[in-house]
Amino acid sequence: MEKEVWRYIDSGYGSPSFNMALDEALLDWHSAGKIPPVIRFYGWNPATLSVGYFQKVEKEINMEAVKIHGLGFVRRPTGGRGVLHEHELTYSVIVSEEHPEMPKTVTEAYRVISEGILKGFHNLGLEAYFAVPKTAEERNALKNPRSAVCFDAPSWYELVVEGRKVAGSAQTRQKGVILQHGAILLDLDEDKLFSLFNYPSERVKERMQKAFKSKAVAINDISSRKIEMDEAKIAFREGFAEGLNIELEPYTLTKDEMDYVIDLAKSKYESDEWNFKR
């Protein structure tokens, strides 16, 4: 039986606004039937703090620290918490809610899509597995996150190695399409990450950062050898192809498509109205 062909886009390092605009454009084009499902890999230039759609920037984010570190800043169209995009491979998956392989619930769709990420970790020789909160206490903790930091705790079906989270994902459903994107950490600067959020006191910040070490980890902190971006891309590209049982066909945006994305980036994702609306 022939495998379904999805598009594969490696858009390289983009600005925060471009990265979010391209994800939105791909969702729109797939919704309109113009393109098949897509797997996209990308990086960030400059390194960027992205916040979830519902986060309150003034309350939770230390914008002064964002400026001091020379970071970009953008609000994602997806939920979840703050993510420092620096030494990571970022991915997005765009696929119809009606796709025969996609479960109806958000949690189960996570599991199916994340199968590709799981296989990618295995390709790098890492024993990753899905996090499944077992106790009522763990499940309640997911509903009431104490921290604005995304990697503070694994959600349902997020990827963990040796009990610590190695990839964080967020999902939105719009116009009949699932957009799931997430960060696969190669390296992590914890001090920088924790400087970007507001805390009630220095003591609370220290306690949270200490707890964080036991909950999240970057690939190169647990791998027996250093894994570079190019190797990670190959591993996760093959992982998605195997995990979703698809064929990936490389695609480059046309000039018209690129112009559309650049316009959307400027008009929406570079606007204070979007980025600071909460």
From TrEMBL:
Keywords: Acyltransferase, Ligase, Transferase. It comes from the Bacteria. Signal peptide: none annotated. It catalyses: octanoyl-[ACP] + L-lysyl-[protein] = N(6)-octanoyl-L-lysyl-[protein] + holo-[ACP] + H(+). The record marks 165 as: Lowers pKa of active site Cys. Its EC number is 2.3.1.181. GO terms for molecular function: ligase activity; lipoyl(octanoyl) transferase activity. GO terms for biological process: lipoate biosynthetic process; protein lipoylation. Residues 33-248 form the BPL/LPL catalytic domain. Gene3D superfamilies: Bira Bifunctional Protein, Domain 2. The keyword Ribonucleoprotein does not apply. Pathway: Protein modification; protein lipoylation via endogenous pathway; protein N(6)-(lipoyl)lysine from octanoyl-[acyl-carrier-protein]. Catalyzes the transfer of endogenously produced octanoic acid from octanoyl-acyl-carrier-protein onto the lipoyl domain of GcvH, an intermediate carrier during protein lipoylation. Belongs to the octanoyltransferase LipM family. HAMAP family: LipM. In the reaction, the free carboxyl group of octanoic acid is attached via an amide linkage to the epsilon-amino group of a specific lysine residue of lipoyl domains of lipoate-dependent enzymes. The reaction proceeds via an octanoyl-thioester enzyme intermediate. This is Octanoyltransferase LipM. It comes from Mesobacillus foraminis.
